[in-house]
Amino acid sequence: MSAGVEIEVRDLRKAWGDSVAVDGIGFTAEAGAFTVLLGPSGCGKSTTLRMIAGLEEATSGAVLIGSQNVTRQPPNARGISMVFQSYALFPHLNVAENILFGLKVRRVPAAERAARLQRTAGLLGLDGLLDRRPSQISGGQQQRVALGRAIISEKPICLMDEPLSNLDAKLRHEMRVELKTLQQKLGITMVYVTHDQVEAIAMADRIVVMKGGQIEQSADPRTLYQRPASVFVARFIGTPPMNILELAVGPAGGMISGDPTPVLPRSVVDDRDGGFQLGIRPEDIEIGQPGGITGTVEQVEYLGADQLVDCRIADQRVLIRAANRQPVAVGQRVSLTWGRDSLHLFDKRSGARIPATDERPVQAAGRTFQTNAETGAAGP
Amino acid sequence: MEWIYGWLLLSPALVLLIAFTHLPAINTLWGSFFSTPRGQRPAKFVGLGNYETLLADETFWQVFSNSFWYAVVTIPVSVALALLMAIWVDGKLAGRGFVRLAYFAPTVLPLIAVANIWMFFYTPGFGLIDQISGAFGFPSVNWLGDPDLALGAVIVVAIWKEAGFFMIFYLAALQSIPPQLREAAAIEGADRWTFFRRITFPLLMPTTLFVSVNAVINSFRLVDHIFVMTDGGPDNASSLLLFYIYEVAFKFWDTAYASTLTVVLLVLLSVLAVGQFFLLDKRVHYR
Ligand SMILES: Nc1ncnc2c1ncn2[C@@H]1O[C@H](COP(=O)(O)OP(=O)(O)OP(=O)(O)O)[C@@H](O)[C@H]1O
Ligand SMILES: [Mg+2]
Fold this sequence. Notes:
The structure holds two protein chains of two kinds. By secondary structure, chain A is α+β, with helices and mostly antiparallel strands. Chain A has helices spanning 45-53, 95-105, 110-124, 139-151, 169-186, 197-203, 221-226, 231-236; strands spanning 7-16, 19-29, 34-38, 60-65, 68-69, 80-83, 157-161, 189-194, 206-211, 214-219, 243-250, 253-256, 262-264, 276-280, 286-287, 293-302, 306-313, 316-323, 333-337, 343-347, 362-364, 367-369.
C-alpha cells in the first residue's frame, strides 16, 4: 500500500460573497499521521476539507500535497480518497460495484480489480454483502462500504467528513477503534473532520481546533488538554468543560473574585488592562483536603464511578469531578484544593493563554512537546 | 358491518368509474359487433364484419401508418429533448429560472392555443419561418398544405408541447439525486459523461419509464392541434387514429365503425403500455 503523503495548507481562505467560511488558515498534516479538524458547527471544517479535496475552490491561499501545489488541480489529480458524512453510496449499484466504481473508471484490469476487492472486503468484513444494494444493509455496513471505496483506491491520503455521525454510540466507538487501526496499518495520511472532542482526542495524532474560520490551536491531544491556547479551546476539550473563574488582582496576588485567599503569586499576575481569567479542570480539584479555598456545595450529580459536585466560591460556580469515596451533601461547606500545575491563566479580553513562567513542558509517551511552541496563535 | 362502510366509502368513485369509464368501454366493445343503426334500420349483429371492413379500409391503413410515425418520432425525440433540457436547466447557468419558465410555458398553454401560434409560424408567405428563410433567399414552403410535410409539421408541434412537460419530471428527479454522489464520483476521477452514463441515467430510469408511458399515451391522445392546423389533410396526410375516430363518429355518423376503431386503439395502447413495463421494469431501480 502507498505510504502517506504530507499535506500543507497555507493561508487558505474561502468566502462566499461577504460571508467568510475559512479565514486564512495554515497547518500541516504530517505524512502517515491522523489529523483531526475539530470545532463547533459552522466553523469551516467541512469547507477546509473540501478545499483540500478540490471539491471547493479556494478564494486564496494554497494547498500543497507532497510539497506540490495542487490548489488549482481537480480532485482526481490530488491522490486522495474521501468518505462523506452521508456515505454517498450509489443507490443502484451493489456493494461490490460501489467499491469498484473508481477502479472501473480508471480502467484497472479485471483480475487486479477482483484481487483488490477481495482484499478490501476481507479487511472490512464485507464478504457476505457484496451483492446487496446499499438500501439492503445497515448504517454501520454502509459506512464500511464507503470506507472500502476509499481504501481500495490505495491513495496516500484519506479525507473524512464526520463519517461516524450517523451511527449509534456503541457502533461509533467500535468504528473509531477500527478506523484508527486501519489508518496505522495502511500508513495513510488521514484528515478527519468532527465536532466531537472525545472522538478527536481518541483518534488524533494532531488536532486542529477551529473557530469562526480560524485556527484556535493546532497541537497533539495531550498539549491541547494540558495547555489549551485559549479559553475557547479550554472549554471545548474535556467533559465536563474547564471551569473559568474571574480573577481579582490585589497586593497579595491573584484571588478568585470575591474570595480573600490568593491562588496565584503577584509575580505571575502583572497589571494588565482587562484583567485575567482562571481556568481549572473539574477533575483537577480535590474536595476535603485541608487548607484550600472554601466552597459551598450546591448540587451533586451521581455518575457511578464519579460524582459531579456543583460548588460556589463567593459568587462563582465551580464544577468538580470527584471520586465517590468522598461523601458530600448539599449545603455543606468544603475545602477545595488543586495543584499549582492545574491552574490555567487567560487574558480576559483576548481569551488567550498567558504562559506562566514556571510551566513545564508537556510529557507525552516517548516524546516531549514544547509548550506553546507549536500552538497556533489564539484570539485576534 | 365493516364491509358495508367499506363499500359505502368506495361507492362514489366506483359509480363514477363504472358509469363513465367501464360501461362505455364495454358498450364500445359490444357496439363494434353490430352495424350502425340508420333511420328505419335498427342495429343488427354483424360479428366481425366491422373488423373486416377495417382491414380493407385504405384510409385506416394510412391513418395507422401516420400514427405509427407520429409516435415513433415524437416519443423518443420529446423524451430525449426533455432530458437534455432538464440537465441543462439543472446546471448552474445564469438566469436558469427564466429558462425553466420558458421551457415549461408550452405545457401550460392549451394545445389549441399552441396550434394557433404555430399556424402563424407555418403560414406560407408571411409566416415566421417563411419570413426568415425568405430573408436568406429560400423559396416559400407550404408546410401544412404539402402532403409530404404536413405530418412532420404537426409532429414538431407535438414535440414542442410535450418536451417541456416531461422536462419537469426529469428536473424533479435530477434534483433528488444527492450532490455528494457527483462529488464522490469526481474524486474517483469520473468525468461528466461517465457520471451521466453510470450514475445519473440509471437513477433516472423510474422517471424515464413514467415519462415514456405517458409519451406513448399522449402520442395517441394529443390530436387537438390537427383540428386547428390541418383538419387531417391534405388527403389524410396528417390524420391520426383518434382524429379519424372522431371523423367517423361525428362527421360520418358511422358509430359502429368508430367503436371498432376505438377498440383497436385501446388494444394497441394496452399492449404498448404492458410491453413497456415488462421491457423496462427489469432495468429500473426504484429507491
Ligand atoms: N455553499 C455555501 N454557500 C454559502 N455559505 C456556505 C456554503 N457552504 C458553507 N457555507 C458557510 O460557511 C461556514 C462554514 O461551513 P462548514 O460547512 O465548513 O462548517 P462545518 O464546520 O463543517 O460545520 P458542521 O459541523 O455543521 O458541518 C458556515 O457558516 C456556512 O454557512
Ligand atoms: Mg461539516
